[in-house]
Write a structure and sequence with these properties.
The longest helix is centred in the last third of the chain and has 18 residues, at 162-179. The chain has helices spanning 14-22, 44-48, 55-59, 67-74, 88-101, 103-107, 132-140, 162-179, and strands at residues 2-5, 78-83, 111-113, 125-129, 144-147. It has a single domain, classed as HAD superfamily/HAD-like (Rossmann fold, 3-Layer(aba) Sandwich), CATH 3.40.50. It is globular and about 50 Å long. A 5-stranded parallel sheet has the order 3-2-1-4-5, sandwiched between helices. The chain is α/β, with parallel strands linked by helices. The structure holds magnesium ion. Residues 6, 8-10, 129-131 line the site of magnesium ion (MG).
């Protein structure tokens, strides 16, 4: 069994970084929204290609509150950090971030930067991600999924206890795989 874990919104607190960079509070999060760009007054392209989202921005983002616990759970699996870059600066900053915050994962090549996460979907691969669209395309491609509950996805009603949702999801997939 392989485990793929997303960065932004799961291991990395991108929303807090955006709030700080643009001096806007993204709270309470509007129900049904996923894209932070309009909430910050930009189009999607304007936001991700903004000069303010430099290598330094991506490199200096804080880990989420759950990052340490997530890493301590997934370290026992054949895991990979799986992340989609929006620009070259973003890809470079993400490499720095992993090197600095998760040096073991970096040194062991446990990271994949790609725009096509679904290509890695197999019946014994689980993706943990906070993006409903990524979850859907990974599942459609034959992979297993656990949505990390956040205010911007379908599991928003569980976002006060996201780790419970992840742990029970892992248990469920384990049992399922043994049944097959
Ligand atoms: Mg994400």
């Amino acid at each position: 069994m392989r485990l793929m874990i997303d960065m932004d919104g799961v291991l990395v607190d991108i929303m807090r970084g955006l709030e700080k960079e643009f001096d806007i509070l993204l709270h309470p999060w509007p129900k049904g929204a996923y894209n932070p760009a309009p909430l910050l007054g930009f189009t999607t392209d304007e936001l991700w290609h903004s000069d303010r989202l430099s290598v330094e921005f991506w490199k200096n983002l804080h880990p989420t509150q759950e990052c340490t616990e997530l890493m301590s759970i997934i370290k026992d699996y054949n895991y990979y950090i799986l992340t989609q870059p929006v620009t070259g600066s973003c890809a470079a900053g993400k490499m720095w971030w992993i090197w600095r915050n998760l040096p073991k994962a970096y040194a062991q090549d446990r990271w994949i930067i790609t725009s096509a996460k679904y290509v890695l979907a197999t019946p014994d691969t689980i993706l943990i991600d906070d993006c409903d669209n990524n979850i859907k395309s990974f599942q459609d491609a034959g992979g297993r999924v656990i949505t990390f509950p956040r205010p911007w996805n379908k599991y928003r009603d569980r976002c006060d206890k996201p780790m419970e949702h992840v742990i029970s999801g892992l248990e469920w997939h384990h049992a399922e795989m043994q049944r097959v």
